[in-house]
Amino acid sequence: MSFDTHGSLNGLVKMTTQTEFRFSIGGTDGKARTGEVVTRHGAIRTPAFMPVGTAATVKAMLPEHVRETGADVLLGNTYHLMLRPGAERVAALGGLHEFMRWPHVILTDSGGFQVMSLAKLRKLTDNGVTFQSHIDGSRHELTPERSMEIQGLLGSDIHMVLDECTPYPCTEEEAAQSMRLSLKWAERSKQAFSGAPGQAVFGIVQGSVFPDLRHESAKELIGIDFPGYAVGGLAVGEGQAAMLKVLEETVPALPGDKPRYLMGVGTPHDLVESVKRGIDMFDCVMPTRSGRHGQAFSRFGKVNLKNARHVEDPRPLDEESTSATASTYSRAYLHHLIRSNEILGMMLITRINLDYYQELMGGMRAAIAAAEFDSFVARTIAGWEQGDLPER
Length: 392
Fold this sequence. Notes:
Layout (H helix, E strand, L loop, with lengths): L21 E8 L2 E8 L2 E5 L1 E3 L1 E2 L9 H6 L4 E4 L1 H6 L3 H6 L3 H5 L4 E4 L3 H6 L2 E5 L4 E4 L6 E4 L1 H11 L3 E3 L11 H21 L7 E6 L5 H14 L4 E3 L8 H11 L9 E3 L5 H9 L4 E3 L2 H7 L2 E4 L2 E4 L19 H5 L2 H9 L3 H27 L3 H14 L6
Parallel strand pairs: 4-15, 5-6, 6-7, 7-11, 11-12, 12-13, 13-14, 14-15
Antiparallel strand pairs: 1-2, 2-3, 8-9, 9-10, 16-17
């Protein structure tokens, strides 16, 4: 795959401080839509998938190779970066773009999810959350104001408000309490945000699987007036059917002229079904994590390259793929690398997966523009259902 890189790593893209953050819709097909999010570090073509660069790196990938897959934007993790190497240190070294040699768009999450899922001895109050680091046990406090400060020090183009990630399952009362706390934190996050032109902060709709709570959250966040809105608290165990039902209830309640971001999702099937329901942006560790464990994604669905049936198979994963990695390296070689726990195996299969995810997003953008989205989805799902190439 080859894409215009909009600048080289020998000369990082200069911040155009006069660039205003904006979103425009290019075309629609049903509820699916194409668009462009413009930031000070470039534009994001939507629908967009963001590879996850947790600790200032997309695991097993060079930054320039991530760009070659077609990615316009990646996600950095506030919780991990605040603990190591520290937001102040990253700022002193030129900010996250310079630090990790990624001159394109970066979105940072708020850190709230990891505080809830990773940290030790959490204590939640209306003010924020205090916790012990999972790394060394050091104590920290994360408030909406501190989250905005950290994301500002990192220099990301899109900040996310601090929210409490509602666990699943939970009662409606528990979900309501959590959602309303997140609304308070969203307002404080917006007040604390002091971004330059071309930067933005997004609100996050919560409310678990309860439609009335999702509507209340969306209405209140719209009143605060964010330049973009995320749907959070999904892909946490509720299953795809419940997730899609929440999207069907929530997306129509969000402004049509602002980007919509579904956090932490998902499988290729999740992506096409969510775009069908009007989502513009996604992030997920699935393609990179799966790649490190020998599972590849392709037009034939998931292929487990650890399986013994690949041990003497000279065929590439997909000889028709536009990914040079998928169309050239043999299954036998990939099988050998991953069974031998070789780093190269993790690198190659991660590249195959990120190539496929970006190819899928590009295919959806083209299909929407041509008003052929439903037929594209039908062909894509049929390919997954057909399964892997037949046995030799």
